[in-house]
Design brief:
The complex is a heterodimer. By secondary structure, chain A is α/β, with parallel strands linked by helices. Chain A contains ten helices and ten strands. In chain A, the strands form two sheets. Chain A has a six-stranded mixed β-sheet, with helices on both faces. In chain A, strands 2-1-4-5 form a four-stranded antiparallel β-sheet. In chain A, strand 1 and strand 2 form a beta hairpin. In chain A, helix 3 crosses helix 4, helix 3 packs parallel to helix 6 and helix 4 crosses helix 6. The two termini of chain B are 28 Å apart.
Chain lengths: 239, 305
Amino acid sequence: MLKIDNVSFSIKEKGKTIWILKNISLEFQPGKNYILTGANGCGKSTLAKLIMGILPVTSGKIYFNGIDITNMDITERAKLGIAYAMQQPTRFKGLNAKDIISYAVGADCTSSSACEYLSKVGICAREYLERDLDNTLSGGELKRIEIASVLAREATLNIYDEPEAGIDIWSFNGLVEIFKKSLTKKNLNIIISHQEKLFKSADEIILMANGEIKTKGPAKDIIPKINDYSSICKKLEVD
Amino acid sequence: MEKVDSELLLKVADLHDIPSGAYNIRKNGKLLGRKCTAGIEITSKTDKPGIDIKIAGNVKNKSVHIPVIVTEENINDLVYNDFYIDKGAEVLIIAGCGLHNDGDIGNSHNGIHEFWIGENAVVRYVEKHYAEGVLTTNKVLNPSTIVHMAKNSKFVMETAQLGGVTSTERLTSAELDDGASLEIKESILTEYNQTATTKFEVNLNGINARANVVSRSVAKGNSSQTFISNVNGNNVSFGHVECDAIVVDNGKVASIPALKNTHPDAELSHEAFIGKIAGEQLIKLQTLGLTKAEAEKAILDGFLK
């Protein structure tokens, strides 16, 4: 369904080329929960942004359902069925939760259907519908609305960048269930996470370090060995 | 009514038809229609253009529409409208002005509205401004709103300039007695070479008087806006001013807030932001399937909503 073919990404800083991602090749199949993990700064979010088209690849190709989407913009990718929950949700003055859910659904959304999506992420929906997504909402509240907006897309590929960030432990348990339940034979989730609980709910885990894929495989095979990679991750943090 | 009249009235006063409640509709400097209802009396002034609107204290949850439209060139309309709201009344007043001009000579409307709000009265005042027609012909709107608020009264003012106005000078001043509460929400859109100046002068004279002034503006093209707010805490009181502006193209905005206390227990604050649409806002809406242009429109419409 999603194929990342030898993708690299670099930036220029003070005249030097810095490689953030190097020769990433991955394939993702429908019906699975994938966890993308690794130390801070290893390139997980960058990879997610390349898939969504927020950043352009420096080299390599990205295919979605056999279509080369490498040069498509964000909107085109969204319309093809890729959805993305930001690590740090955006605040809007003048747009409320119902507006965002309506845009996600692609039509004017009734209050009850907007409520349905917000209820899935455990917030008292009626209370939130008319509230602007501004500074009056906490980070955790915004995060849950962000996740609800992706659920409302009912997309084929759902990318969640650290969905647990800012979410309380009780709501987090519910999120694990949501990701499981949202999965069908036709869609897939790529979840960037550091949470062991999410690892356990994954079908496959991909471990990144220093802009490269260090290992990948079924969760049952990777989880027992995850501590073996701590030296790589620690070293990277020092680097 | 002609089609252009209906369209303007819908735009500035949300009127699909003649309102069921009290109303006074003015067109091209003349009375188009008027209706008084129980407790709401509207009379023409005899010494100058304009009307007196008297709301009795027993009026609750009623509305008054007083829109003005100018549809011909070379008309410079001026009205003095005075509102007398008795103690305890609760009323919605919908004003608004629409200009249409297909000619070469400009037109304008200057509305000077003065409110005397009795004790414990609650007034919601909605005022929308809009102009359309030949782009190069001047269409000018200059509203003045002067508010005298008695003890524990409440005045909510929602004012919006929807677009098309070549230039505007907007003045709002308010005097608040003990426990009075003033809430102003203003939104202004300017485009092309349009200019807008908006000035607020708020005097918190009474104990526990409260004022909250929120202005949101969008300046597109080569348009420019100036926002001036003076809030004076003359007693134990609370005042807050907020000015947020989004600039598009070469739009320019100046925000000049001034807070002054003459009483040590006055609590006054302001916050302001001027900048372009945040990139991550566009990205978020694009990930939901909107094009960049659609995302920009959604953000600006929401911001001015």
